[in-house]
Amino acid sequence: KTLLFILLAALSVTSQAKPMFDEEEEQHIPRVDENLQPSVIDADGMPEYPLDRNLRQLNIRHSDLIYYVDLASILPTKKNNVRLVTVAISASGARTAVYEELDCGYRRYKSYGFAGKEGPFRPFKIQEWKPVIDSGSGRYRRTLLDNYLCGRFADAASREEILSRMQALKPYQPHANQD
Question: Which of 26, 122, 149, 161 is the most exposed place for a label (fewest CB within 10 A)?
Fold first, then answer.
């Protein structure tokens, strides 16, 4: 009798425990796009080449290039992401524009396309997320994330808030880069 009672008690406990564990396994409900890479943007999805009057200079420490952001291109796309065009100008006047997306939550970026001095934008063959670093030519992205694009809790700020934060940035001056 005692042995039968112990076996019945053990079966009862295991049958009660199983649904608890099954429920825990089903608690994670992935987002629809959780594991998907965003689609590639082709030439038709590229922005217009930025107008000089829309460029504002970023203050980037220890850089040989002068970086500008195109105010007209700023577009928060998702909860954490902002797309925009940046322009890098060398001391000799060489100019490269890049269309990219920065992710405030994961602190990463994806470059979609580039353009020379006149445009048009050409898509990169490989468009994948990369970490934002605080060195070399990637330092401007860190400045954008830390000072302009991101709001509280790693969410992207609204377009209006981003533009407000950038209002004190200097406008583009054509000959200031070639001194």
Answer: 26
- Asked if 60 and 83 count as a contact pair (C-beta separation under 8 A), the reply is no
Distance CA 134, CA 140 (A): 8
- CA-to-CA separations, 105 to 99, 114, 118, 130, 157, in angstroms, rounded: 19, 24, 33, 13, 12
If 0-12 CB within 10 Å is exposed, 13-18 middle and 19+ buried, where does residue 26 land? Answer: exposed
| Cα 65 to Cα 140: distance, rounded to the nearest angstrom | 10
Name the region of 93 (left: φ>0; alpha: ψ -120 to 50; beta: rest).
left
Look up residue 174 and give its two tokens: 């054509």
User: pLDDT band at 178, cuts 50/70/90?
Assistant: very low
Helix (H, G, I), strand (E, B), or coil: what is residue 58?
strand
Give the pLDDT confidence of 25-48 residue by residue, as tens digits: 444 444 455 455 556 888 888 999
101 vs 83: CA distance, rounded Å: 4
Q: How high is the pLDDT of residue 135? A: 84
Whole-Å CA distances, 143 to 102, 118, 137, 149, 178: 11, 26, 11, 9, 23
